[in-house]
Design the sequence.
């Protein structure tokens, strides 16, 4: 079922350590009950693409929220904000978890929610979505799209990213959907192998789809990375997975 | 960022955005997904001031081949600049020595 009618707004939520951050919210018309999706954006920041995907979820009958994880790094063109974040060595994982927790709490307080909440993130957002689902127990499903640096070497760890997410696999608290391109280098097919092996080792429910003829950013229709066939199939996988795990 | 190929250095100088120049604090070199170039992965160079809002940024996205050519050009220009700097330093030292000789002669 699709919902062409929706309301969209920008709100403030209290993020990590109570810091107010902006969030983009889309809500399908009607009383619901609707499942919820919390979108975790990528390094290109709180971008137009993420706002579009927030609305896409509403179109498909989900209350959706995407918090601005880079609010503290300044306002401006998302490209410039993303560049500033990169120049500052990224944002701390703990802060992203705190901000995402605030978005999940906001979602769980919404009238019309069916009680189920999923996560959706791509690139660094895919990594952060997985990381969140390993650290918290308040989401019911997690969609990780081509998350880079889920597998991190010791030399990559620092104060902002102190733990390689794969090390937390044993704590994953919900089913995981992973979508990857076999021509990607971040994550590489070998890293996706490790990621999946760790999930199997700990008996974690997961579905991994790995596409030939595709690399990173399969869904980014505005980039040369876009792969139409894989993207269409991948979106079908996303909605089937969320439909299964977020239904009441 | 999905790749971990990022190098950040302190920078002293100025960069231009539109018709405004701003002082730099950092230069960032990365190899990551292009945001604007119609390419997959690119070398990005960002010249920024971390004390200013995010718009204080001069950024480019380059193919690897362009980045290599730029790297070679930079290395050549820097090598030549160092020769000039050395010659200038030597010239100043010579002038100082000559001035000292004149001063001694006058004494």
Sequence:
């Amino acid at each position: 079922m699709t919902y062409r009618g929706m309301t969209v707004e920008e709100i403030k939520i209290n993020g990590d350590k109570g810091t107010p951050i902006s969030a983009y919210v889309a809500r399908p018309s009607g009383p619901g009950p609707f499942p919820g999706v919390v979108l975790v954006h990528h390094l290109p920041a709180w971008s137009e693409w993420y706002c579009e995907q927030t609305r896409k979820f509403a179109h498909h009958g989900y209350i959706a929220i995407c918090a601005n994880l880079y609010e503290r790094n300044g306002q401006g063109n998302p490209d410039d904000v993303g560049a500033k974040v990169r120049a500052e060595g990224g944002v701390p994982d703990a802060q992203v978890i705190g901000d995402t927790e605030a978005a999940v709490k906001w979602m769980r307080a919404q009238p019309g929610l069916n009680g189920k909440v999923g996560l959706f993130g791509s690139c660094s957002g895919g990594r952060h979505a997985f990381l969140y689902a390993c650290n918290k127990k308040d989401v019911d499903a997690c969609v990780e799209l081509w998350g880079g640096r889920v597998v991190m070497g010791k030399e990559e760890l620092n104060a902002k990213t102190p733990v390689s997410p794969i090390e937390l696999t044993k704590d994953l608290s919900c089913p995981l959907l992973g979508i990857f391109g076999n021509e990607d280098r971040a994550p590489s097919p070998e890293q996706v192998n490790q990621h999946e092996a760790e999930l199997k080792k700990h008996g974690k429910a997961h579905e991994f789809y790995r596409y030939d003829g595709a690399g990173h950013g399969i869904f980014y229709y505005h980039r040369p990375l876009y792969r139409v066939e894989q993207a269409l199939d991948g979106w079908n996988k996303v909605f089937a997975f969320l439909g299964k795990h977020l239904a009441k | 960022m999905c790749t971990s190929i990022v190098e950040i250095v302190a920078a002293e100088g100025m960069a231009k955005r539109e018709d405004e120049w701003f002082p730099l604090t950092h230069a960032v070199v990365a190899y990551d997904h292009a945001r604007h170039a119609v390419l997959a992965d690119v070398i990005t160079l960002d010249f920024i001031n971390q004390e200013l809002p995010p718009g204080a940024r001069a950024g480019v996205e380059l193919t690897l081949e362009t980045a290599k050519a730029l790297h070679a050009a930079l290395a050549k220009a820097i090598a030549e600049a160092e020769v000039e700097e050395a010659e200038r330093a030597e010239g100043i030292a010579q002038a100082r020595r000559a001035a000292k000789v004149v001063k001694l002669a006058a004494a």
Chain B touches chain A at residues 1-4, 6, 8, 26, 28, 30, 32-36, 38-41, 44, 46, 48, 50, 53-55, 57, 59 (CB under 8 Å). The longest strand of chain B covers residues 26-33.
